[in-house]
Specification:
Elements: H1 3-16, H2 18-38, H3 50-56, H4 65-73, H5 75-98, H6 102-120, H7 129-147, H8 154-160, H9 169-174, H10 183-205, E1 220-229, E2 234-243, E3 250-258, E4 264-268, H11 270-274, E5 281-283, E6 290-291, E7 296-298, E8 303-309, E9 318-323, E10 328-332
Antiparallel strand pairs: 1-2, 2-8, 3-4, 3-7, 3-9, 5-8, 6-7, 9-10
Length: 335
């Protein structure tokens, strides 16, 4: 391929990805638009705070779980991270739509999509929603890095104006311009992204072989650190919601404490749970377990140390929790 043909091919490739630039750019810029222009979702005390949604990623995040847990344990740092993340999404989205520093912004798209994939690729109630967004974003970022922008872009406008910086080598890598892409780079990158797609599909959903599963369909509670203090008659345990829809809570309508013979010692029904004292719920993260109108509400990713004050002399051996769906979870008391 001679230089004229190569330049034509590069320009056409950048032109053909215009729709990708506009659509994927808006998907990221719209995050900023929704959170700050249409509504303010960066205020921790307000309903819909983006930090709580970030908390939902925690139970099954891949590779970046320690980072997520650190942030949700430190609300100030979490808010700073959410503000920074939103600004980055706005810049990357807007610049890729304008075709400004297109290859640099494509790296931003790749990185943001990778974060979505690793953090929330397991979430999705009807389809594998977040996983699909993540892998398609990764692939799109790679394609836009290869093509850059041509017509209908600021990069090309600067090139046509023969701006001095467009002749610099760094602009070829960070902006756009004639670039002979090695075939091996395309093949290696494409196969790597395919491998990432298959691996995460299997890891999160069993979508390649074995039994297909979806962790977003039914609520699942995890009961740990279940202890009984004989002197104070206090039964405490850590409770975390690790599965189920991220947009819908699990509603606990019953807590039963049982003895060694499986007989009921004490119980809290839906009325008692709807007025459960906040002083006996010690939340760990931003998403909080709290009493609702008719039950105890457990958002996805929420974790709290629960304290139950027993008013009997009998020794508890088991605890049973009941969700409004009828699902029950049991755990043995560690005396």
């Amino acid at each position: 391929m001679n230089s004229i043909e190569n330049k034509w091919f590069t320009n056409q490739a950048g032109l053909f990805t215009l729709a990708l630039r506009l659509v994927v750019g808006w998907t990221y810029f719209s995050a900023f638009w929704r959170r700050l222009i249409l509504d303010n979702k960066l205020i921790p005390e307000e309903a819909g705070y983006i930090g709580e949604k970030f908390n939902h990623f925690l139970p099954h995040a891949l590779g970046i779980k320690p980072i997520i847990e650190y942030l949700v344990l430190n609300p100030d740092k979490l808010q700073a991270a959410m503000i920074t993340f939103t600004i980055v999404e706005a810049i990357v989205g807007l610049f890729i739509m304008l075709g400004l520093f297109s290859r640099l912004m494509s790296i931003g798209i790749f990185s943001l999509a990778m974060g979505i994939l690793l953090g929330s690729g397991w979430i999705g109630t009807t389809c594998l929603d977040e996983w699909q967004i993540g892998v398609l974003g990764v692939a799109t970022g790679f394609v836009l890095f290869l093509t850059g922008s041509s017509s209908y872009s600021l990069d090309q406008w600067f090139i046509n104006k023969e701006m001095a910086f467009t002749k610099k080598k760094w602009f070829l890598w960070l902006g756009s311009g004639e670039w002979k892409v090695p075939k091996r780079l395309v093949l290696f990158g494409s196969l790597t992204i395919l491998g990432l797609t298959l691996f995460t599909n299997q890891y999160f959903h069993g979508g390649v072989f074995g039994t297909l599963h979806n962790k977003s369909v039914k609520p699942e509670l995890e009961i740990t650190e279940l202890h009984f203090q004989k002197q104070s008659r206090l039964l405490s345990f850590d409770l975390m919601r690790v599965q189920g829809a991220d947009v819908y809570g699990s509603f606990l309508i019953g807590i039963e404490v049982l003895d060694a013979e499986n007989k009921l010692i004490q119980q809290w029904d839906m009325g008692a749970l709807s007025t459960f004292p906040l002083t006996q719920i010690k939340n760990h993260y931003v998403a909080k377990i709290k009493p609702g109108v008719h039950s105890l509400i457990l958002p996805l990713g929420a974790k709290a140390t629960m304290e139950l004050q027993l008013n009997t002399t009998e020794i508890p051996k088991k605890i049973r929790l009941t969700d409004i769906s009828g699902t029950q979870w049991e755990s043995i008391v560690d005396n």
